[in-house]
Amino acid sequence: MITDDPGVINPRIGEKGSSCPIWQCGFNAAEVFGSSIHELHLGGQANAAGLRILKVVPGPAAAAGGHVQLDVAGDALVLRDARGAAVAGEALVGTRIVLAKKGRPYATVMIASHDRVTRWAEGSPEVDAYGLVYIDGNQIERNVCTGYHDSPRAPIALVLGGETYDLDAKEVRPDAEGWFSIACAGSAAAKLSLLGYGPQSSDTTPDQRQATLKMITADYCGGGHSYTENGTPIQWENVQGTVGLTAEPAAIEAVWTAAGALCVDQTRIADTEIECQLPRCGAYDLSDGEWITYVPMVQ
After folding, report:
1. Torsion of CA 197, 164, 212, 223, to 10 degrees
2. What predicted TM-score, i.e. pTM, was given to this entire model?
3. Do residues 234 and 295 make contact, with C-beta atoms less than 8 angstroms apart?
4. How far apart are CA 84 and CA 69, in angstroms?
């Protein structure tokens, strides 16, 4: 099981740099041959990059039990048999997802590894993580999550079911029947899940999840512009009380709703000029939004 202990080197509460754990400062894009697979449709519809699932070839363990139909349940990949019974986790290793583009096979993504990751929210269940790999044009095995990692088979991708995310507008697109999102470690969608706001693994509403997305990306004005960068220190706590402070904050940053920040006292990156006029937070507190964020003692 993977744990990401939010201790003193966590970028949310302290130092910034090479000590930043992978799930907070990891990889940000899921792609094959430069084409995005951050969202895919179980029924074979094409995503924005023109990629669709052509077929699924179950791994040996799943195939032996007749589990051949790919699905997402509880923000985890599963394979179902003809009666709907499902297998998950390690039983999916070796399963191949064949992707097509413009009617032709384009790439094959294999579930090469599986692990469980501890979420950051109190009371939230662990989440399944996958090592998703493909073979590039040089016959080299690549993880679909771009960036450096020790092993191409590292389990650094999460799955969020029934929902997709507009990465430009920083908005949740709920009720996306048949769709699922692949969220690489360090991405906003992966952090959303780790904070206990998975669409199929929590009781949160789309507005609560969108407030979380706005908070993670520092979209103060709500129009999709992010005023942060990878590894920027921040602290956060939510109105539900499942995510709390783990160190003494220096100052309030903002209170967050689905529309962005209600107020801003101090920007996440010092001296940042934002494009909208927002009040200071003296008249607001956590009860006015979903999240309140603070700048840490160390930046």
Report:
1. -170
2. 0.91
3. yes
4. 9
